[in-house]
Write a structure and sequence with these properties.
single chain, alpha/beta, Metallo-beta-lactamase, Chain A
Length: 271
C-alpha cells in the first residue's frame, strides 16, 4: 500500500500547501483511493506535480462535512468521470466554526448534495476490502478544540455524527484513515477494531489538538494521557498531520518516540 499526501498544512518537498487534507492511496491490487480533497483545487495541482492521475481514481471518500476536507469535491467530480464518492449521510448538514467575527460557515458546497455520483453512508459501509464507519462514542479524550464547532443548529455544539473513518485491510495490515478525529482518535480506534475484528497496524490521522483552549500544563497533561492510550496499541504505527498541530506533534513525539511520525504534503509512505 502506497500513501501520498496531496494536501497538508506543511511541506518539506517544496509543494504549495493549505490548511486541509487530501491523501492518495494506491492498493497492491492497483485500485486507487482519494481520501479527502482539501479546500479547493490544490489537491489536483499537487497530484499532477507528483505524477498521480486523478481521473483514474476508483473510490473517493469525504471524511466529514468541513470545507478543508471536502472543499475540492466539485473539482474532483469534474476531473474524474466515474468514481463513486462516499460521504456520510449527515455531511451536507450546516457546520460552523466560532471565530473572532462570530460563527462562520465551514460546511460543504450545498449545490453538490444531489449529485448522482455521491453515495451516502450510514454507520458502516463495506466496499470490497474497505470499510467506512461512523457511530463513534466520545468517552475517551474528546478534543477540547471541538468547543468552537457547531451544527447543524447554530446554537448547538457539533456531535460529529457526520464524521466517518476508513479501514483498509491488505494481507496482515489493517490501516485506519481518519480525517480530523473530532470524535477522539482513541474512540475511533476502539470502534475501528470492533468493526474490522482485527488489530490496527497503522493509523493515518489528524488528531484535532489545535485550538484546545487549554493552559500549557493542561495541554501537556492531555497529550501525555493521549500518548499513553495510543501506546497501548502495541505494534501500531501512527502518521499524523493537519489539525494535530506541529507543537502538539512535538509533544506526542517526545512521549511516543518512533511509534509516531508527521506526514507533510508531498511525502510518501509505503507499508
Amino acid at each position: 500500500m502506497k500513501i501520498t499526501s496531496l494536501v497538508e498544512n506543511t511541506s518539506c518537498k517544496g509543494l504549495p500547501v493549505e490548511h486541509g487534507l487530501s491523501l492518495h492511496i494506491k492498493l497492491n491490487d492497483g485500485r486507487q483511493i482519494l481520501f479527502d480533497m482539501g479546500q479547493h483545487n490544490l489537491f489536483a495541482g499537487n497530484a499532477e506535480r507528483l505524477g498521480i492521475n486523478l481521473p483514474a481514481i476508483d473510490v473517493a471518500v469525504v471524511s466529514h462535512g468541513h470545507y478543508d476536507h471536502g472543499g475540492g469535491l466539485g473539482k474532483f467530480l469534474k476531473i474524474n468521470s466515474h468514481a463513486t464518492v462516499y460521504v456520510n449521510r449527515h455531511a451536507f448538514e450546516p457546520h460552523y466554526s466560532l471565530r473572532d467575527n462570530g460563527l462562520t460557515y465551514i460546511g460543504l458546497d450545498q449545490s453538490l448534495k444531489n449529485n448522482r455520483r455521491l453515495a451516502f453512508c450510514d454507520e458502516e459501509t463495506g466496499i470490497d476490502g474497505i470499510i467506512l464507519f461512523s457511530g463513534v462514542g466520545n468517552n475517551c479524550l474528546f478534543p477540547s478544540g471541538n468547543r468552537l464547532l457547531f451544527g447543524p443548529e447554530m446554537d448547538k455544539n457539533d456531535d460529529f455524527c457526520h464524521e466517518q473513518s476508513m479501514i483498509v485491510t491488505e494481507g496482515d495490515k489493517t490501516v485506519l484513515f481518519a480525517g480530523c478525529a473530532h470524535s477522539g482518535i482513541v474512540n475511533i480506534m476502539q470502534r475501528a477494531e470492533k468493526v474490522a475484528k482485527r488489530q490496527l497496524t497503522h493509523v493515518f490521522a489528524g488528531m484535532h489538538l489545535v485550538k484546545s483552549g487549554l493552559s500549557e500544563d493542561e495541554e501537556n497533561t492531555f497529550i501525555g494521557r493521549l500518548s499513553e492510550e495510543l501506546l497501548k496499541y502495541h505494534d501500531c504505527h501512527y502518521y499524523t498531520m493537519h489539525c494535530t498541530g506541529l507543537q502538539q506533534y512535538g509533544l506526542l513525539k517526545k512521549h511516543m518516540g518512533c511509534a509516531i511520525d508527521y506526514m507533510s504534503c508531498g511525502e510518501i509512505v509505503e507499508i
